[in-house]
Design goal:
Chain lengths: 162, 257
């Protein structure tokens, strides 16, 4: 380390500041490194979860490309486009197990993919543990609610409802 | 590559240019002295300097001729010891490998400490968390055979080539302190630690690859990498850091499945 030119007080003159506050008897406060890994910092106990999450993002992403583009084509482009969508159209599609599985898969993969992505965003950007806890709590609640509601609708959909 | 290189110019040098090689350059240095103020401030220094000099020479000029209280690390001054990584014009570089003419000296050149580590004074940061992550990956040869070998451990040229890129690391922390994931909470191992783990994981003579992979499989290990390539851009040795991290990820996946 290249050290400073020390004067008698050990502190070089700095303009516009009062250097007399600290002395040998009253030393400047020690700067605690905020990120030092100590025995107290949490050790990972999550096994392969992060790897599984990382791998899931890649694989679900690939599958979602097919599912979502197919979905958009059918719903918005082919055969009359968006104007054809109505209760009857949805009822007709969900009469077939193929489209039920397609939509179910899309729902689960998209929700988990998005939730996992937001989880990493929260991990990266939320700095206080409490903020993380609340944001993740909100995220997981919303995800579970949407997945359960969607699944329920796909399986219990009644075309004759009135 | 992080360090700018001289651009080839077919223009003839302007007349009068050869009279004096010196130009006036403003250096805007981030100053911090905890014994005086809790706030860091910018301080401008004007220098007459040859643009073919390096930023480190300018810092020396400031320290030796203008303000002896300016504090920074440097040791070899030739891009090998890794002491003088700093944020110059917003990019992590080695001050001793950055020529002034390559970083638009007509505008003020900003010099700051590297980000994500505690600033102790001016351009000096506390490197301890960085070295802690380095130590955590056990950057030394580990063999199961505890007896001292009677001859050297032989290795083929191909096996040596496998990890050649990551042997170049000088631990300057330019990569780790350019990583946005590290900036956030500093618990992420950081590119430099992963590069040095890579150097042993892919070394055919080393036998603790599995242990090192397990360490990097941590919540704050390789999976926190967001492949932003900041580390590859920042590396003054031109190591393909993000590629090394990706190879560790791949090794983690392929050893399981």
């Amino acid at each position: 380390m290249s050290t400073t030119e020390t004067t008698a007080s050990g502190i070089g003159p700095v303009e516009g500041a009062d250097a007399s506050v600290y002395s040998v008897d009253n030393p400047a406060p020690l700067i605690e490194p905020p990120r030092k890994r100590t025995k107290k910092s949490p050790k990972s106990t999550r096994g392969n979860f992060e790897m599984a999450a990382w791998l899931f993002m890649r694989l679900s992403g690939v599958v979602l490309v097919v599912l979502v583009i197919g979905h958009l084509l059918i719903q918005l482009v082919l055969d009359g486009g968006v104007s054809k969508i109505g209760f009857a159209f949805v009822a007709g599609r969900w009469a077939s197990p193929f489209w039920q599985v397609w939509d179910l898969l899309m729902l689960w993969l998209a929700m988990l993919h998005g939730a996992n992505g937001l989880r990493t965003v929260i991990n990266d950007y939320a700095e206080r543990p409490n903020t993380r806890l609340w944001l993740k709590g909100l995220l997981y609640t919303a995800t579970v609610f949407t997945i359960l509601l969607g699944t329920l609708v796909i399986f219990t959909f009644d075309p004759n409802i009135r | 590559m992080a360090t700018p290189v001289m651009e080839k110019s077919d223009k003839a040098p302007e007349p009068g240019f050869a009279d004096s090689p010196y130009i006036t350059v403003t250096f805007r240095v981030r100053r911090f002295n905890p014994e005086v103020s809790a706030e860091a401030t910018w301080e401008d220094f004007q220098l007459e300097i040859d643009p073919k000099e390096r930023v480190l020479d300018a810092l020396h000029k400031i320290k030796w001729d203008l303000d002896g209280s300016l504090t920074f690390r440097r040791s070899c001054a030739h891009g090998i010891c890794g002491s003088d990584a700093m944020r110059i014009n917003g990019t992590n570089r080695l001050a001793c490998k950055t020529l002034i003419k390559d970083i638009s000296p007509e505008k003020p050149i900003t010099v700051e400490p590297i980000k994500g580590l505690t600033v102790l004074k001016d351009l000096v940061v506390d490197m301890e968390p960085f070295f802690q992550a380095y130590r955590d990956v056990m950057p030394f040869l580990i063999t199961k055979d505890t007896n001292e070998p009677t001859r050297e451990r032989l290795q083929s040229a191909e096996d040596r080539e496998r990890f050649d890129d990551t042997t170049k690391c000088i631990l300057c922390a330019a990569c780790t302190s350019s990583c946005p994931v590290f900036w956030n909470d500093g618990q992420y191992f950081g590119p430099a630690a992963i590069v040095n783990a890579h150097r042993f994981i892919f070394d055919s003579r080393d036998e603790a690859g599995e242990q090192r992979l397990e360490i990097l499989n941590d919540r704050d290990g390789v999976w926190r990498c967001r492949t932003t390539f900041n580390c590859t851009d920042a590396c003054p040795r031109g190591i393909e850091v993000t590629k090394a991290i990706a190879e560790v990820k791949r090794a983690l996946i392929t050893r399981r499945f």
